[in-house]
UniProtKB/TrEMBL annotation:
Keyword line: RNA-binding
A Gene Ontology molecular function term of the record: RNA binding
Protein name per the record: Ribosome assembly RNA-binding protein YhbY
Residues covered by the CRM domain: 1-96
Length: 96
């Protein structure tokens, strides 16, 4: 689990990022989870956009994505979800 200080640090890091993934009408599937997991391994921190066409609400999507990719949910702001997962191979972010 991340502390409040760590979440603030990660939020500031993710502020300038653009969402890499979009969850739309298709919802969440195994392929999306796999790609998300790979991207988190490479980047550690990323944003996911929840489109208006998505049938599930953003909280449900955030919970499913973080559970599926075994990542930490940093923030939900608007329709954007910020996820963090420490990389096994190439750690770039040093948490406070």
């Amino acid at each position: 689990m991340l502390t409040g200080k760590q979440k603030r640090f990660l939020r500031s890091k993710a502020h300038h990022f653009n969402p890499i993934f979009q969850v739309g009408k298709g919802g969440i599937n195994e392929n999306l989870i796999k790609q998300l997991d790979d991207a988190l391994e490479a980047r550690e921190l990323l944003k996911v956009s929840v489109l208006q066409s998505c049938e599930e609400d953003r909280d449900t999507v955030a919970a499913s994505l973080s559970k599926g990719a075994r990542a930490e949910l940093v923030q939900i702001i608007g329709n954007t979800i910020v996820l963090y997962k420490e990389s096994r191979e190439n750690r770039q972010i040093k948490l406070p």
